[in-house]
């Protein structure tokens, strides 16, 4: 039986009435996304039609999922909310704090030792507040959610940007910051601007070397890293129905890389098969009873241009394998064109590592397709030219794959089987062949490939592909290898070609596992004591942020003007810094150290206007804070792209930064700034970014009149005494302005609970 089956049945029992009412108030047929959104309104039955991309709407998500790196701060905040238990089903998954180095057993043992304090904290706080806990080694959060919790037509939020993976099972699953999750844990409504809708019509059928991963690699090339911002991507068509459930999950997972709010597919036979294979026949039967409401209306898919804000059509029969990268996930190159492009761009041709796994591609089907290529290398006597690393998605996947001989195939190629965890995908990789200043190339089946992402080395060129393509390229050892036409030389000096990959959607013997790694919480956790040592370097109880005094901000100094791409990895790096995710002051020492200073094109080297000296960003900001000087961060387009990590908002807030002024924001980061009581605003005229000089001082002359839909006026005073007056836009509504007044959304929650 599925977890929380009564909750799922309740959602389905209300769905027909709510969808029918929504269709009535909207006055036209509905997409799947609209059906799910309107059936999860906080007020219950729909009573009005919402404007896409404009109206803020309150929703009631069905469940929450948190990974260990973000769960720390989320639960530290929840502890301040004054609640005895979480209001909706919630789980915590320990997958980020396990470094890949030697192999699964040794690495897991090392993580349990080095991060025991954090794991113990998360397990105890979960036990106290009624939260399901998945132990280290149990698996990657999004694969575990897909196997155990995701259900068609549901709505969930998660403190990780790849929560969207659950769209593969027909959910609207959205990545958020911890403060958003705390709202829902505390029994409050969750607010989201009603998304725009992008429809992707899939025709034809995948075959040969082309995989589900290539669909989203193609879409990323079309939409770019910001083309999906503020929108849900809904996939439909006969091509969508022809793909496996986990293949759909892969596509939805990497929708985060185009900035989409989430992605989803309508309920179909592949989802039913997957639910039954993962021991959730009860969910499948309940979903079948409301099947017509778990996909878009026929009229929508017949005439998508009338119902979506944008429509993309992809013929799967014509789609070819891609590699995306380096340094950005939207630089899409068909494999057939890589040789010419790599030479033109001077990308390193020799491939050092092929990495298979991550929350994007670690399903049973993924492993079988990659293993079918690896087995050919063994059988055809081709010695791989690159190192292999494998991260199974869950203990259930690992146990089943080992039983079926899949892992042995990789081990026969001297691959390292890492723990069922994120590992290199999120920078948790102690790479054995460190390259230093030497440019080098790796290929992986992950989702992100920002500079320094996997191994901390800015000279590593990372390319994203399907597991089977990663396997083929790693075997060849060359970035320009096209397995559809290129030959390899085996150990006998013979020319051989790799045959097309073969995959198995679901294990023929069924899934199996001895210990999945789940720990259920106590029914009454009131007696559980959660301890945080005062001298801990890993955990720190939170102190509320100071409320706004209601006055204009004046004398604001520029901390940094960030040049170009500034992701949450640039603002708050992962890798070794993950150990401090539960200690706000310690992790703040990585604040903006990856951002490029527009004035000297260096990282972590900015001018202190108080002394005239240059130093690291956190050090300079701590000097401003000590002197009581407010500061501002200026940024470029899509500022805060990438992970949902709210540390990227909390760190500058903790250090005393008052304002972030950019050309445009990534959705999650903008919300995180608002939740933490920061002023996140955009240039009304993007060209004004160029007016900002290194020694500038900013005066917000009408902040006292802060109101929805009202521009802010900023006086920019230059070092020579000259001034420019610029306008800034914002998207704050009245409740969000109240967060700003109170100092943070959490401050407001505490105040309301105390009343």
Automatic annotation (TrEMBL):
A Pfam family annotated for this UniProt entry: Aconitase_C
InterPro entries: Acnase/IPM_dHydase_lsu_aba_1/3, Acoase/IPM_deHydtase_lsu_aba, Aconitase/3IPM_dehydase_swvl, Aconitase/IPM_isomerase, Aconitase_4Fe-4S_BS, Aconitase_4Fe-4S_dom, Aconitase_dom2, Aconitase_mito-like
Cofactor: [4Fe-4S] cluster
Record key words, sorted: Iron, Iron-sulfur, Lyase, Metal-binding, Transit peptide, Tricarboxylic acid cycle
Positions of the Aconitase/3-isopropylmalate dehydratase large subunit alpha/beta/alpha domain: 34-477
Molecular-function GO terms, alphabetical: aconitate hydratase activity
Reactions it catalyzes: citrate = D-threo-isocitrate
Annotated metabolic or biological route of this protein: Carbohydrate metabolism; tricarboxylic acid cycle; isocitrate from oxaloacetate: step 2/2
Domain Aconitase A/isopropylmalate dehydratase small subunit swivel span(s) in chain numbering: 558-686
EC number: 4.2.1.3
Similarity field: Belongs to the aconitase/IPM isomerase family.
Listed name of the protein: Aconitate hydratase A
Taxonomic source organism: Autumnicola patrickiae
């Amino acid at each position: 039986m599925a977890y929380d089956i009564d909750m799922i049945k309740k959602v389905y029992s209300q769905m027909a009435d709510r969808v029918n009412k929504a269709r009535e108030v909207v006055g036209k047929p509905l997409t799947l996304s609209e059906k799910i959104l309107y059936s999860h309104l906080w007020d219950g039955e729909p009573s009005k039609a919402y404007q896409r991309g404009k109206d803020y709407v309150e929703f009631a998500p069905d469940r929450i999922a948190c990974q260990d790196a973000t769960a720390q701060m989320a639960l530290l905040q929840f502890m301040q909310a004054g609640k005895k238990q979480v209001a909706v089903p919630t789980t915590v998954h320990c997958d980020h704090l396990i470094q890949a180095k030697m192999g699964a057993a040794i690495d897991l043992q090392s993580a349990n030792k080095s991060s025991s304090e954090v794991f113990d904290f998360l397990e105890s706080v979960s036990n106290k507040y009624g939260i399901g806990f998945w132990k280290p080694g149990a698996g990657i959060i999004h694969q575990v959610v897909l196997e155990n919790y995701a259900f068609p037509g549901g709505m969930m939020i998660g403190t990780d940007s790849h929560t969207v993976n659950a769209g593969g099972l027909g959910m609207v699953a959205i990545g958020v910051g911890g403060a958003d999750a705390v709202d829902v844990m505390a029994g409050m409504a969750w607010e989201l601007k009603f998304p725009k809708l992008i429809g992707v019509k899939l025709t034809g059928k995948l075959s040969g070397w082309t995989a589900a991963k290539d669909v989203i690699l193609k879409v990323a090339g079309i939409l770019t890293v910001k083309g999906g911002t503020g929108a849900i991507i809904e996939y439909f068509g006969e091509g969508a129905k022809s793909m496996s459930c986990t293949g759909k999950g892969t596509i939805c997972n990497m929708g985060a890389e185009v900035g989409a709010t989430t992605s989803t597919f309508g309920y179909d036979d592949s989802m039913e098969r997957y639910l039954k294979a993962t021991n959730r026949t009860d969910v499948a039967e309940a979903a079948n009873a409301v099947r017509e409401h778990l996909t878009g209306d026929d009229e929508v898919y017949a005439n998508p241009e009338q119902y979506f804000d944008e429509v993309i059509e992809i013929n799967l029969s014509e789609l070819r394998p891609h590699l995306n990268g380096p340094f950005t996930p939207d630089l899409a190159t068909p494999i057939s064109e890589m040789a010419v492009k790599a030479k033109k761009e001077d990308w390193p041709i020799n491939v050092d590592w092929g990495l298979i796994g991550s929350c994007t591609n670690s399903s049973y089907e993924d492993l079988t397709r990659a293993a079918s290529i690896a087995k050919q290398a063994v059988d055809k006597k081709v010695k791989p030219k690159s190192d292999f690393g494998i991260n199974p998605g869950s203990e259930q996947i690992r146990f089943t794959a080992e039983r079926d001989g899949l892992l042995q195939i990789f081990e026969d190629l001297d691959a390292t089987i890492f723990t069922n965890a994120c590992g290199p995908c999120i920078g948790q990789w102690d790479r054995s062949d460190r390259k230093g200043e030497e440019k080098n190339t790796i290929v992986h089946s992950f989702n992100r490939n920002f500079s320094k992402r996997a191994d901390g080395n800015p000279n590593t060129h990372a390319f994203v592909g399907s597991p089977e393509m990663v396997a083929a390229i790693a075997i060849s050892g060359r970035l320009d290898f096209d397995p559809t036409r290129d030959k390899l030389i085996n150990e006998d000096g013979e020319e051989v070609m790799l045959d097309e990959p073969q995959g198995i959607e679901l294990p023929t013997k069924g899934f199996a596992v001895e210990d999945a790694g789940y720990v259920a919480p106590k029914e009454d956790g009131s007696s559980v004591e959660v301890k945080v040592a005062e001298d801990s370097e890993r955990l720190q109880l939170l102190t509320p942020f100071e409320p706004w005094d209601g006055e204009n901000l004046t004398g604001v100094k520029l901390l940094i003007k960030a040049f170009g791409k500034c992701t949450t990895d640039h603002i708050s790096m992962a890798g070794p810094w993950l150990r401090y995710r539960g200690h706000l002051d310690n992790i703040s020492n990585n604040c903006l150290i990856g951002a490029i200073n527009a004035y000297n094109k260096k990282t972590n080297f900015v001018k202190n206007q108080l002394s005239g000296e240059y130093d690291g960003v956190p050090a300079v900001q701590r000097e401003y804070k000590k002197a009581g000087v407010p500061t501002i961060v200026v940024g470029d387009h899509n500022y805060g792209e990438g992970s949902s990590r709210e540390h990227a908002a909390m760190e500058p807030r903790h250090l005393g930064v008052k304002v972030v002024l950019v050309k445009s924001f990534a959705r999650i980061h903008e919300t995180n700034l608002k939740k933490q009581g920061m002023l996140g605003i955009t240039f009304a005229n993007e060209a004004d970014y160029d007016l900002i000089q290194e020694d500038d001082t900013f005066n917000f002359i009408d902040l006292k009149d802060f109101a929805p839909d009202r521009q802010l006026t900023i006086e920019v005073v230059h070092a020579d005494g000259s001034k420019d007056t610029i306008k800034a836009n914002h998207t704050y509504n009245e409740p969000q302005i109240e967060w700003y007044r109170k100092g943070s959304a959490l401050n407001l929650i505490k105040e309301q609970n105390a009343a």
